Structures are given as C-alpha cells and as structure tokens.
Amino acid sequence: MICRMIFDELCVLANGDIVCSCGDPSGIRVYGNVFHDRIADIYNGPKYVEMRAWQLNAKHDSFCPVIKACCGGRVSRATSVDGTTGRVVRMLQLEPISFCNLKCPACPVTQFHIDPGFRNDRASILPLEVMLDVVNQLPDLEKILFYNFGEPFLHKHAIAFLRQVRGRRSDLVLHTSTNGLVLTDGMIDAIASEILADRIVFSIDGAREESYRKYRVNGSLNKALSKMSALVDACERFGSRKRIDIVWQYILFEWNDSDDELSHARQVANEIGVPLKWVFTHTLGASKRFTDGSELAAQLFHTGDPYSALTCDSRMLHLWKHGGVAGGRYLAKLSLDREVLAGPAGTRAAALLTVENQSSLPWSPDSGQLFRIGLLLRSEKGRVLEELPGIPLPAESISPGGKGTVLLDLVLPPYPGDYQLFIDIVEEGVCWFSERSSPPLVCKMRAVIGGSHREWNYTALVETIYQALLGRPAEAGGLQYWMSLLSKGMPLERILSKFVAAASSDKRDSMIRKKPEARATLLSAIDAAS
After folding, report:
1. What is each CA distance from 354 to 170, 351, 395, in whole angstroms?
2. What is the CA radius of gyration of the chain?
3. 185 burial class (0-12, 13-18, 19+ CB within 10 angstroms)?
4. Integer Cα distance of 170 and 320 in angstroms
5. For labelling, which of 149, 170, 286, 512 has a CA lying 20 to 30 Å from the CA of 338?
6. Whole-angstrom distance, CA of residue 202 vs CA of residue 182
7. Which runs of E-coded beta strand occur in 319-440?
C-alpha cells in the first residue's frame, strides 16, 4: 500500500513548510519551505525519493518513519507508473492561514500555542504572492484544496487568491472547506457570481445549538446555517447553482447522533437545498451508534457502503479488517494483452482487456448501482486530459471470482506524443474502484506521425463478426448497417453486444458463447492490417 499524497500531491502549511499531508500538522518531517525552496527541486529530491521507496517496499502495517505509527494515508495500491522519481504534483493542499475563530477540541490549531510539539511559527499566514507563486510552479496541477487547519476565509486575501487562480488557471478544480461564520455578504456574492470554487464544504456538526457548540466551541449554529443558505441563494441569483457544489459536512459524535437530531438535520438540509455528508470520526467523543460496519451506518446511507464517511485512519483499519477489500466488493484485477497502445495520431486502436472480480460480492445492478469500465486519457506525466466513453463490464466478471474479456477500442489522441490510459472499474454515482484501494491499470499510449498504419477495413471486420458468430457471410443489408455504425465510431464491443441482441432467441446463447473467440479474431485481423 502507498499514500497517494506522497506520489501525486503537495501539502503546504501556512508557515511555508512542505510536509507529507494533513496527517503531519506539526511538521515532523519537513521536505522544504516555499519561502526559500523551489518545489521542483524538493518534490523529486532525496527526502521524497526516500519516503516513496519506503512505501513501495514496506509491508502495509509497517510504522511510518515520520509519525512512528501506521499511516492512515496508505490505502492505495501502487501502479506500474508509481516510481520514486519523475513525479509531478497533481493536487495541492494549501493552508493559507493557521488561525481560526473556533476552538474545536480535536483540532491542532487549538493546541498550537500550548503544545510544545508545535514550533513557534506554526500559527502563520501565507502571503498572497507566495500562494500564487506556489501555483505557478505547478504546471501539471489539476486540483487545489484551499484549506487544511485554520479557517481559510480569515485570510484577508482569500477571495483575491481564488479570483486570480480562476483567472489564470481556469482548468483547475478548486475545493475549499469553511465553518462559514466569517463569510461576508461580499465574499458570498463574489464566490457565487465569479464561480470561485467548484466545491465548498460547510463544517456544521449538529442540528441543535447545544450539540453544535459542544465541538464547534465559540460557534453559532444559526449563523453557520444562514451563511450556507445565503451562498445557496446567491448561486441561484447569479445562475451558478449547478456549477458550485455546496455540501453540509456533519461529523457524528455521541452528543449529536440521535435519530431526532439527524432527522432534523435532513429536514434543514432539504429546506436549504444541500446534501448532507456524514463523517465517522475516530477522535474523542466519536459516535458509538454509527460506526464502520454497523447496521445503523448502513441504514444512514440507504444504498452503497459508508466508506466515504470514514476518516483516513478509519479507512486504513477498514481495509485491514476486510483483507484489503473495501466494502467487500471493491477489488478488481485488470490486465491488457499489450504493454503499449500505439498508432498514428487520431486513428483507432484496439486491445483485449481482461477483468477479474477478486472481491466476495457481485458487481450487479441488484446493489442499486451500475458498474462499468472507466477510462481516463492522461498526459505522459499523469495529468487527466479527458474522460473517455465507458465500456460495459463483461458478464463473466460480475460474479465473485468471475473473469471475462472485452475489446478496448478507442481513438488515439490527435497530437503525436506519449500518453497514459488509466483503466478502472466504476460504480456509477459512488466511486472509481481505485478510490477504494483497488489497483487500477495504467497503460502506455503512443500517438505517432503518419507511418505505414492503415485505417480499419470496416467491411472485413463486419464479415469477421458474421463468420465468428453466425458461421456465414454477411448479407448486403446487414453489411451496410453494421459498417455504418463502425464508421460513426461505435466501439467494436458495443457492436458485438448489439449484434447478439439483434439475433433470434434460438441463436443468442450460442453467439454469446462465441463472443470471446470473436473478440480474439477481430483483434488479430486489426493487428495484421496495422
């Protein structure tokens, strides 16, 4: 197991220190400091290389050399492209300020001035120009988490930072988290009118004033809710409601987890128009009713599993308890019949993808969710360029222990160069399996200039399908019909499925049994003509 934060992410504290993640709030291991170091030198420097090498080689339950305990961030399986060097930062966790208007008991900010484990400069503020310079140093950045410890909107330049980043790097995804109490009308209008964030999480742990204040010390429930409601209203007014995801995060404690209070929270959330995100904490006072694997936790989420509600440490323990398989279902083995998908830029390429269900539960619609194969086109360094159309799962892989193949058929990027194809199983509306610690497949792609490659012969491919599944040549009408679908870009796997579905019922079972051989024959014909 590895921690993706060491391989793909950067965490910058308000004093400028670069640390592993939010899991090191006191700066036990400082890799560098943005006030005097360049990130490119630090991120592939000896300290990061050493930590990545340790993670790639250490057993999953080994104590992290930084925190001297098991690291809750080590919940991802390494892929073939996860090396120790040549890494780029794809996500930035930026702590603009480490002061807060609240005194939450379990938050490190509350301890900064009384715990000798925190250095004197831990309570700090990053200047606007330094924050912008950090972003400028990260050309492969995809996402910014504009929060860590402290209330980000106490920073007097919070809106200015978001505004400048949005103007300079409109492709970046911006997430932030707030207690909401310091948001002014001007801030709210700016966020809503200029779409300065893609997601804003309001941390409001309770639906009654007394229970809310037990953790959010010095806070006001009515004020927090009114600020969240005001942002929703502003987004409606400026027409940005569908572009800004506003979420109410509710940490479940012993004092705020009664059925009555949770029901009231749902009612208020529905009235405001925001989703509730429940969190199962591992800190002092954690709910004893709603715990990982409990019946009440399952009822709270209705469908799916509550894995997304777990904190990092809880996710680690969950994986240990379930043999490395989150929710009992999120473990797949994916393999491709070739190391590189290559061809002239802009032309079609194909390969055979094998999918194995290595979990103990089926991937079926009976769960209330749909499963598919998800594809992401990424740059050579791993930056996501676009999500490609998904592929249905092979029927043979749905059951536990099942294994099946599909034809992976896609168009190579229009610009010559090296790329990555990220392949994973997706539970629609829930997660990509890699987010639940299942190993994705990362395949190399190469788009070249010209060459001797020939375009696919659609006539020959349709004739191959007829011979493989029906044992006869194609009739004129059928040949033209299926060729037209291929010429419009319909993937071969979907062609095969539609071909079988269109057959008479007495032939369908036989054709289904012949599909694996048909895939192999089609791929051989494509490879031979290339």
Report:
1. 37, 10, 12
2. 26
3. exposed
4. 40
5. 512
6. 12
7. 332-336, 340-344, 348-357, 371-379, 384-392, 403-411, 417-427, 431-432
Residue pLDDT, tens place only, 386-432:
999 888 899 899 999 999 999 999 999 999 999 999 999 998 888 89
pLDDT in tens, 132-177: 999 999 999 999 999 999 999 999 999 999 999 999 999 999 999 9
Closest by alpha carbon to 518, among 403, 352, 379?
352
**Residue 452 pLDDT:** 60
Residue written as token pair 């399996």: 433
Mean pLDDT of the chain: 91
The alpha-helical segments, DSSP class H, found in 412-473 are: 458-470
Spacing of C-alpha 288 from chain mean position? 29
Residue type present at position 290: F
The token pair that represents 261 in the structure block:
């209070």
d(CA 203, CA 358): 37
Tell me how far apart the alpha carbons of residues 489 and 493 are, in angstroms, rounded to a whole number. 11
Give the predicted TM-score (pTM) of the model. Answer: 0.87
